Amino acid sequence: MVLLGKITKVHGYGGAVMVKPVDYIPGELKEMEWVFIEIEGKPVPFFISSLSEHASGNVILKFENYDSSEVMKEFTGCSVFLKHDYDEEVNEIKPHLILTGFKVFNKANEFIGTVNKVMSLPMQYMLVLEGADNTEKLIPLNEGWILEIDKEAGILTMDLPEGLVNINP
To answer: What per-residue confidence (pLDDT) applies to 47?
Structure first.
């Protein structure tokens, strides 16, 4: 499972909650039918009846059969998780869910950095890497540049344009 964020407060009077996301790609949440809420250290599935984005960047979730703000107050501070999502049948990769922690190498097998997170920008995904020298590097995640994804080893091999890694500090 992948951490979506934490429930920060109840939203309104109908039992909806506000979730402050750690890192996610907004458009893909609309496809979710359920999430896990960690209760007493254990993930418990909750089916989503409505989902929207707040102007603050937070997510407003309402769950089936939970219509009381008083009941939902008990979940304030709980972590909300998404299931790890990789659809091998269509080979669809949701990078924010599977690439965090991967080591990135170029085609010459030189270490570029470790993925700290994947940012969603309007036109593309951006890998935020921590380089070997502890500097932050930003690499656009262009599918045409991906040579191999080794899930077991946690390695992403990319054919990056000359000089791209040196553009940012």
So the answer is: 87
